[in-house]
Structure formats: structure tokens, C-alpha cells
Write a structure and sequence with these properties.
The chain is mostly beta strands and about 150 residues long. The protein has 1 helix and 8 strands, in the order αββββββββ.
Length: about 150
């Protein structure tokens, strides 16, 4: 009987040790959450150059960011240049492509967001010749958050 009681008590003690090992009672600090990513989502009032001479003001550029992907549309103030933007965010930089639906032209873009996230400066290039543009020339494209 003593032997059975000792076995039962030892078994119970083993169960208690196992149960204690399953519980996390350490005083570790939880992981620091990742800082919110820069957000390009919103409506932007933009201006851009053509042939590095003419400053064109657009009505709006509307961007939506999901994760590191940004998509959007733009239209100039005369309504004759409409297009879309697709890009990827890395830090404060947005790189991607633009597609002009009216002239069937495309090119690359690179925007840099300001520290307060309310403005960007950037460049665009065209991959195709079209009226008043030269292939592989870099132009300016800047914006202010509305």
C-alpha cells in the first residue's frame, strides 16, 4: 500500500511539473509591433511636366494602397488625359508604371513621399513616342494630398 501511495504521489508530482512547463510564466516583453507602413491611399492634386517645359495640373489622382501595392487613376484638368497607375511601395518610395488610356502609351514612375506624408515629388518616363513626348526622357510629377 505504501508503494502504491508513493507511485501515485510521484506520478502526481510528474503531472504537476509537466503542467508547469506548459504554462508560460516568464516575464518576457511582447514583440514590438511593426510600425504602420507609409500610406499612399487618398486623393492627390498633382502637376507634371511634358518636355520639361509645360507644367500640367491634373484634377485628381486617386490612389489606393493594399499592403505594398498601390493602384489608382488620374485625369488632367482638360479631361483629355486619363490613365491608371500600378506600383509597389518600399519605405517612402513608390515605383511603378502608368498607362495613359487616351493615347495608349505607358511608362515608369518613381515618387518619394514627404516626411509628413502630405506631398510627393517624383518623375515619370515614357516608353513610347507620342505627340510632344520623347522616348526615355525623364519628366517631373509632383503631388499634394487633398
Amino acid at each position: 500500500m505504501k508503494k502504491s501511495l508513493v507511485i501515485i504521489l510521484v506520478g502526481f508530482a510528474c503531472l504537476m511539473v509537466l503542467a508547469a512547463g506548459c504554462m508560460n510564466t516568464s516575464d518576457t516583453t511582447p514583440a514590438t509591433p511593426v510600425a504602420d507602413a507609409t500610406s499612399w491611399s487618398g486623393t492627390w492634386s498633382t502637376s507634371w511636366t511634358s518636355n520639361n517645359v509645360t507644367l500640367v495640373t491634373t484634377e485628381d489622382m486617386m490612389l489606393t494602397q493594399t499592403g505594398s501595392t498601390v493602384t489608382g487613376t488620374y485625369l488632367n484638368d482638360m479631361g483629355n488625359l486619363a490613365g491608371s497607375i500600378t506600383g509597389t511601395v518600399q519605405g517612402t518610395k513608390l515605383t511603378g508604371i502608368w498607362i495613359d488610356t487616351d493615347f495608349s502609351s505607358t511608362g515608369s514612375l518613381e515618387f518619394e513621399l514627404s516626411a509628413d506624408e502630405n506631398a510627393f515629388t517624383g518623375t515619370w518616363t515614357t516608353d513610347q513616342d507620342y505627340a510632344n513626348a520623347v522616348t526615355n526622357v525623364t519628366y517631373l510629377w509632383n503631388g499634394v494630398r487633398k
